[in-house]
Amino acid sequence: MAQQLINDTFLRALLREPTDYTPIWLMRQAGRYLPEYNATRGRAGSFLGLAQNPDYATEVTLQPLERYPLDAAILFSDILTIPDAMGLGLEFATGEGPKFARPVRSEDDVARLAVPDIDATLRYVTDAVSQIRRALTDAQGRQRVPLIGFSGSPWTLACYMVEGRGSDDFRTVKSMLYGRPDLMHRILDVNARAVTAYLNAQIEAGAQAVMIFDTWGGTLADGTYQRFSLHYIEQIVSQLKREHDGRRVPVITFTKGGGLWLEEIAASGVDAVGLDWTVNLGRARERVAGKVALQGNIDPSVLFAPPSTIRIEARAVLDSYGNYPGHVFNLGHGISQFTPPEHVAELVDEVHRHSRAIRATGQTQVPGAVSKT
């Protein structure tokens, strides 16, 4: 499946190579803020009907690329595909979000958990990856932009598996963590092995970078985070295929609320660390000292502001990082379903425009450089 990439800026930025401008993609860039997405979802009949059909998944993955000159596509799927494949009975109730019919609460529940057969249970995901790659490729065999695959982290998956749905306080899963850490480690070990197999299957199917979403890692206490989340992310990263089709396959991890542990996350073996909007990007770059790329980190709520403010805030993020390699522009979390689509166009345009202007200053981009300010 090796193909020429027309635009490989995203991959080069993840590998901390100099680029002509700062690449941008958006978490949840294919989603409910786009009217075309909502139309496709209507045809699919439900969210699961959309996510589990490779044709629909391909269609919605490409929709934001038709609107905006984004620098990467991301597979349209859901982080809860793995626990669903474990037989927990995933449902999406209107107005309630995801929930599981059979949450993991008892010793017997935990004992029954097993790594699913990815090819048998999640083939619709790998088929979608392959189909999206083909759709991104023109008649001359040139691919528009790279494709990102992803999974939830073991801890984030465990939060949904034990709680049975989203939670405000994570009382049930944290009660298990502190009261029966042996059960929690068993869940996390199974999840880590499943995520490893799942991401490797996506890479084999054509994903050119992969991302681990540790959405709820920031709910953990210092010390607990390292044992119950980061340890298992490290386990996954150490076992991922890092070369495919003659290319390096970069790995990104994103822990919402994880700025406290930036240095430790950067040392986990990943190529890039995603940051939420609470982290100062310039200081973060200095803290990692060129060891990894950084992704982020504008506040998604900025997209509700007037276009002139969106452009000001985008420039502030770019100026904070400075004229150094290793930056992928993104939101500090997923885009809101209420975001005006035209505001996204303003953001993408300003990121490309201003980052090119920064490069034009003539300052040499030095991989690994740390500013003295």
Automatic annotation (TrEMBL):
Any GO BP: protoporphyrinogen IX biosynthetic process from glutamate
Give yes or no: UniProt keyword Chaperone.
no
Q: Which GO terms describe its cellular component?
A: cytosol
Annotated organism of origin: Paraburkholderia humisilvae
User: Chief subcellular site?
Assistant: cytoplasm
Annotated keywords: Cytoplasm, Decarboxylase, Lyase, Porphyrin biosynthesis
Pathway annotation from the record: Porphyrin-containing compound metabolism; protoporphyrin-IX biosynthesis; coproporphyrinogen-III from 5-aminolevulinate: step 4/4
Q: What Pfam families does this protein's entry cite?
A: URO-D (PF01208)
Quick check: keyword Phosphoprotein in the entry? no
Q: Positions of the site: Transition state stabilizer? A: D78
* Function recorded in the entry: Catalyzes the decarboxylation of four acetate groups of uroporphyrinogen-III to yield coproporphyrinogen-III.
What family does the entry list?
Belongs to the uroporphyrinogen decarboxylase family.
State which Enzyme Commission number(s) the record gives.
4.1.1.37
**Residues in Uroporphyrinogen decarboxylase (URO-D) domain copies:** 23-32, 148-164
Q: What is this protein called?
A: Uroporphyrinogen decarboxylase
PANTHER family tied to this protein: METHYLTETRAHYDROFOLATE:HOMOCYSTEINE METHYLTRANSFERASE RELATED (PTHR21091), UROPORPHYRINOGEN DECARBOXYLASE (PTHR21091:SF169)
Query: What compartments host this protein?
Result: Cytoplasm
* Molecular function as annotated in GO: uroporphyrinogen decarboxylase activity
Its domain of life reads Bacteria
Residues reported in the UniProt entry to bind substrate: R28, Q29, A30, G31, R32, D78, Y160, T215, H333
According to the record's subunit comment, the protein's assembly and interactions are: Homodimer.
